[in-house]
Amino acid sequence: MTTRLQKNIKQYLKDNIGIIGALLILCIFLSIFPKTSGAFLTHKNMFNVLRQISSNLFLACGMTMVIILGGIDLSVGSIIALSGCVAAGCVARYNLPIFAAIIIGILIGMAVGMMNGVVISKTTIPPFIVTLATMNVAKGLAYVYTGGSPVRVVTKAWQFLGAGYIGGVPTPVILLVFVLIITAVIMNKTKLGRHIYAVGGNAQAAKFSGISTARVKLLVHTYSGIMAGLAGVVLASRMYSGQPTAGDGAEMDAIAAVVVGGTSMAGGSGKIGGTIIGGLIIGVLNNGLNLMNVNSFWQYVVKGIVILLAVFIDYLRNKKKD
């Protein structure tokens, strides 16, 4: 058992040596840079980074599967807004139990994801177009539900999921560990996981081999919606309110984490282990730029360049294989 674990760890380090190195270089730079050296490596900031990246990695878990299929999900950011607003409204407006509100928020994400999956699996409409449409639908519904104003929740218990601690560790981080384990098991130990790679590698060949490509696409997009719904509820809890502007641009951070983590945009290859490192890189980068007081507009430029570099590296890697 120990030998097998050591072998897996060595393989993981070998597969992700490039991005692990990039993460270490980024952390070292922020540790010695004058503007950030005193704040970056503090206990408080490290937990702050982990809390912040948890929502992005929830999205990235579903996005990894979607991109391995050769698709993309642009609706996750808007699902965050809709799920968070409705969940907060269930507590603030309808006095429902907090657990029920959380479940309702996640179910809303699941419903939108399922809608994406049904259309994508039953038609030849590109996932980009389908999820672009549902992105606007979900965002519009969030604004309709809230009237454009935040839904504030003053209940102390509501704040536990997003802003609480368990044994000194932020609650979202503990929740993230369970989500990452579940995602890794689905991708590496189940029939669905094998089918995801098969469909992403060659959908036609997978269909001829007896795999229900429609079912795989439906399940993957549903899972992506569930992850977005969970992220929305956690974010609403952390902000003490459901906000229709929450999740703006979140899909870009999730895609960045997945692509930087080594998942190919062409589909068929990628690992959740790489996505974790990719999420850490994006989270540390965001945190570092904030500590350096870099203008938020320039932050978009930096993240765009990072995504472009990651895609270019993926292009070179695929070209070398050919």
Automatic annotation (TrEMBL):
Full protein name: Ribose ABC transporter permease
Keyword Cell membrane: yes
Entry keyword set: Cell membrane, Membrane, Transmembrane, Transmembrane helix
GO molecular function list: transmembrane transporter activity
Species in which this protein is naturally found: Lacrimispora celerecrescens
Major subcellular site: membrane
Record's bilayer topology term: Multi-pass membrane protein
Pfam family, one: BPD_transp_2
